[in-house]
Amino acid sequence: LRAINAALDTYKKANPDAGYPKTLQELARRGTLNPQLGCAAPPCVKNQYQFRYTWLPPDATGPRYQVMCRPVKYGDGGERSFYTDQTGVFRFTSEDREAGAKDQPLGAGR
């Protein structure tokens, strides 16, 4: 997820009027993201996790996106799902579902 956030941030800085790309495939084509994460037919799979990127229309806070990452097979290779967005905060859940914006931030409670 860090690599995805970094590539999206780089894209936004290079294209301030465009905001974020509509797909991660655009980043993979530019060579700023691993092609496994910028596949042509999401969800993209890497290291037994599937990644799904969603471009969101800008709101009053500016350009937006969200990225969800969850095990391909919960309990067999992973027991956490993760979420991040344009804020850069990583969130997770240990439940067998996608993580979201209301889940616990990674590292909270330590």
Strand content: 25-35%
Distance between the termini: 21 Å
Give me the side-by-side strand order of the main sheet: 1-2-3-4-5-6
Structural class: alpha+beta
| Total helical elements | 2
Main sheet overview: 6 strands, antiparallel
Radius of gyration computed on alpha carbons: 14 Å
Outline the structure in words.
The structure is a single chain. The protein is an alpha+beta fold. Helices cover 17% and strands 32% of the residues. It contains two helices and six strands. Strands 1-2-3-4-5-6 form a six-stranded antiparallel β-sheet, with no helix packed on it. Strand 2 (49-59) and strand 3 (62-71) form a beta hairpin. The longest helix has 13 residues, at 2-14. The radius of gyration is 14 Å and the shape is globular. The model has no long low-confidence stretch (mean pLDDT 93).
